[in-house]
Design goal:
The chain is α+β, with helices and mostly antiparallel strands and 227 residues long. The chain has helices at residues 19-27, 32-38, 46-52, 58-70, 88-91, 94-104, 118-128, 131-134, 176-183, 189-194, 204-211, and strands at 44-45, 74-77, 83-86, 138-144, 149-155, 161-163, 170-173, 199-202. A hairpin with a 4-residue loop joins strand 4 (138-144) and strand 5. It is globular, with a radius of gyration of 20 Å.
């Protein structure tokens, strides 16, 4: 089969036929992959995307959204205040984001106490769950954050999560950073409640069993510096 050269106006960074090189051209610009992360649970308006990425400027966000749209990763719906939504192909980037997240979490430089968005917290649950231990468990969980809410339905190792009013057998009402401390730092639910950081509703035993499905991976061993 003859391979045909594809020409396009976009500047190439690497001039390399490897799919990894093209993937970096599509998502490797600063903020691009995090924008995709923010859209992973459905369409969002410009202001909603920016709220999840407080360090990005409006100008840069506009540029990245335009670039991702030209690349076919997302589409715009409506005007003058459009919704931005991933294409079916764009949603498939979740596997890449998850793999990168699992790999990077092994770095000694990973700091799980830094700020994170609601979408980032929810995606981390889908990424870090121990699916083997979760088999046979069934639980519906709601997560209510100041500007967003989600419902997760744990069933036989799978954890689909949708953006919806928080409801279920277990409901966490808090901010993403506190939830991360409970899930990954194993901060007791009772302690977070007592400190006023969490409002909890529902099955405490179920919540504890769910929390026990998540553990940060062992850190990679760094080579010793010569000397």
């Amino acid at each position: 089969m003859k391979l045909e050269k594809v020409t396009e106006s976009a500047m190439r960074w690497y001039d390399d036929a490897c799919g990894t090189a093209l993937g970096l051209e599509l998502l490797g610009e600063r903020w691009s992959m995090l924008i995709v992360r923010e859209l992973m649970f459905g369409a969002r308006r410009f202001s909603e995307v920016r709220a999840g990425l407080p360090g990005i400027s409006a100008n840069v966000l506009t540029q990245r959204l335009d670039g991702l749209a030209r690349a076919g990763v997302l589409v715009r719906h409506g005007a003058p205040s459009p919704l931005y939504e991933l294409t079916p192909w764009g949603y498939q980037a979740e596997e890449t984001i998850q793999a990168l997240g699992r790999w990077a979490a092994r770095s000694p430089a990973h700091d799980p106490t830094l700020p994170l968005s609601a979408a980032s917290m929810m995606l981390s649950l889908r990424t870090m769950i121990d699916r083997t231990r979760a088999r046979g468990m069934t639980l519906t969980l709601g997560f209510r954050f100041p500007r967003d809410s989600f419902v997760a339905r744990l069933a036989d190792g799978a954890l689909p999560i949708v953006r919806a009013p928080a409801a279920g057998e277990v409901v966490f009402d808090t901010v993403p950073e506190v939830l991360a401390g409970i899930i990954y730092g194993k901060r007791p639910v009772d302690a977070a409640e007592a400190a006023g950081d969490l409002v909890f509703h529902g099955n405490r035993a179920g919540a504890e069993a769910f929390i026990d499905l998540f553990h940060l991976p062992e850190k990679a061993r760094m080579p010793h510096a010569p000397g």
